[in-house]
Specification:
Blueprint: E1 5-12, E2 15-22, H1 32-35, E3 38-42, E4 50-54
């Protein structure tokens, strides 16, 4: 299934970061490159909390 790709800027750790965003009819995902040097904590349940923190 083809989809559109966009260059976007997101605010990450308080600073703008340029990334590619793929437009698809699905749940949004954060790319692994953006998560590099961060901790990811997910409460795996409906409506569960997701916390992303920069490593010290």
């Amino acid at each position: 299934m083809p989809f559109d790709v966009y260059d976007v800027t997101v605010l990450w750790d308080g600073r703008p970061v340029r990334v590619e965003a793929d437009a698809a009819d699905a749940t949004p995902l954060v790319g692994m490159r953006l998560l590099d040097s961060h901790n990811l904590n997910i409460d795996v349940e409906d409506g569960g909390r997701v916390v992303v923190q920069a490593k010290d």
